[in-house]
Amino acid sequence: MKKRITKAIFPVAGLGTRFLPATKSVPKEIMTLVDRPLIQYAIDEARAAGIKEFIFVTSRGKGALEDYFDHSPQLESELRKKGKDDLLDILKTTNMDSGAIAYIRQHKALGLGHAVWCARRLVGNEPFAVILPDDVIAADKPCLQQMVEAFEDNPTNMVAAMEVPEDKAHAYGVLDVKETKGNVVSVGGMVEKPAPGEAPSNLAVIGRYLLTPQIMKNLDQMKKGKGGEVQLTDAIAEEINAGRDVLGYRFNGQRFDCGSKAGFLQATVSFGLSRDDLRGELMEYLQDIVGGSRAAAE
Ligand code: UTP
User: Fold this and answer.
1) How far is the CA of 132 from the centre of ligand 1 (A)?
2) Less Cβ around it within 10 Å: N or C end of the chain?
3) If you average pLDDT over residues 58-75, what whole number do you get?
4) Which of 9, 12, 104 to mutate to test the pocket of ligand 1 (most atoms within 8 A of CB)?
5) Which class does domain 7-259 fall in?
6) Domain map of the chain by residue range?
7) What are the phi and psi torsion angles at 29 (to 5°)?
8) With bands split at pLDDT 50, 70 and 90, how would you rate the model's confidence at 35?
9) What percent of the chain has pLDDT over 90?
């Protein structure tokens, strides 16, 4: 029988220092891309891929995330009274079935690998997905769905992969490519944040993973990697060293790095332009400022 992936981990325990001071009181994942928080894009993508259990690895100060997925009886009854069915429908997309969502605390930001490991008991002995909500991917077929479909034929560790310019490779986990078959790449090694000139390829790992339960066992060792953090990439690379398969999946779609300010701004413009209700006005404004080099402060 084909293995189905029904559980996804959302590691959201990071400090989000690149967005200070906003992230002093607002979790990064609640920051808004057009009119929805980043986390909503990640949840929608997971749902489309058939995920039924959503595991959040959180930290202190992330209460707004839990509230976001809760019902809001007062707001709902107000909207009902006013006959605002369209807004009620929008709110419904944020509700989670009872028991579908779980929160686990990562008490110290010891790294992405450690954050994933915190969810080991909830994942159990099943393959699972990991989604980093910072990476927002615009695609006709959502990225995780593309990967889950590829996983049905190749049920082994799979990481989303994307070509990056050589001078940007140092910011990513980079794949050593053995063989390419269509969108699937067989991986011979992985290097987390390679020094300039030492990247094994231009294919970088993006924040979507389908992983076997063995990864949790590898993480049990709590080996510290780059930056003194427990790296998920290292735990996946161990599988290659043990002779097991790791695949890269070159997804179709455009990825935005919403963990960085420039990436967030680009996503805002791009998602704004993709909306029928905003395109006209936004386009006119962009043409105006590009033509006249007018910025907000002028
Ligand atoms: P980042 O490297 O983007 O770190 O983490 P960050 O803390 O979120 O942001 P900056 O760099 O300080 O601005 C990538 C993903 O891994 C999670 C983050 O929440 C984010 O989704 N993460 C990272 C954890 O959950 N725990 C950690 O210890 C580290």
Assistant:
1) 9
2) N
3) 87
4) 12
5) alpha beta
6) 7-259, 260-298
7) -70, -15
8) very high
9) 71
